[in-house]
Design a protein that fits this description.
This protein is α/β, with parallel strands linked by helices. 29% of the residues lie in helices and 25% in strands. Strands 1, 2, 3, 4, 5, 6 and 7 form a 7-stranded mixed β-sheet that branches.
Length: 202
């Protein structure tokens, strides 16, 4: 993890290295002026890589890869994986996989690992970190699962839960130091990283 504060002001724009509409909406809500550049990287997990190691590596790789296309700028990279009973849970492959994910989630607790990285394309300085969210689901029936999937269609969401909309109805508790981390972008940590680079929203 690299968190040293570099010297010199930053005059570069912000670039979000993600195609996620949810991360884009979060940055828009806090009033950041940014552009979007979707990264093209291999997101396969390395052998014996833990979820924490994976999301931090992938967040940094996304930021660095997009940063290579720019001579200046602060590039924001992020990645998220869910861990349940020692198993890594990603986005569902299809409807049947989403049903299976939600059946396994009923009455259980998962840890969402959200990696965040800021790459300064001007200086080459990289910051990266991981923020965890503990999500406890209530017990729910198959009928609720099918109704939920039909209404919310969370097929592009980790663990088949779109918690920023109807998915919240399936939850019992959420514990985290950063409420935005549940949607894959830990904003409190991100803003700290941006301040380290001389960029402040206030």
């Amino acid at each position: 993890m690299s968190n040293s504060i570099p010297s010199g002001p930053v005059e570069a724009p912000l670039i979000l290295a993600s195609s996620s509409v949810y991360r884009r909406e979060i940055l828009q809500r806090i009033g950041l002026n940014f552009t979007v550049h979707a990264p093209e990287i291999d997101e396969s997990l390395a052998a014996r890589e833990t979820p924490v190691q994976a999301v931090e590596r992938l967040a940094a790789a996304k930021a660095r890869t997009v940063g290579a296309s720019y001579g200046k700028g602060l590039i924001i990279g992020s990645d998220q994986l869910s861990e349940q009973d020692g198993r890594i849970i990603g986005k569902p492959r299809d409807h049947e996989d989403a049903v299976a994910q939600l059946r396994a989630a009923s009455g259980s607790t998962a840890i969402l690992h959200s990696g965040i990285a800021v790459f300064n394309a001007t200086s080459g300085h990289m910051q990266s970190d991981v923020v965890q969210v503990e999500v406890e689901c209530r017990e729910f029936s198959d009928a609720e699962i099918y109704r939920y999937l039909e209404r919310d269609r969370p097929y592009n969401c980790c663990g088949s839960l779109k918690v920023e909309s109807l998915g919240i109805a399936l939850l019992k508790t959420v514990r985290s130091d950063d409420p935005n981390a549940i949607t894959g972008l830990p904003v409190i940590r991100l803003l700290e990283m941006l301040r380290n680079e001389g960029y402040s929203v206030l």
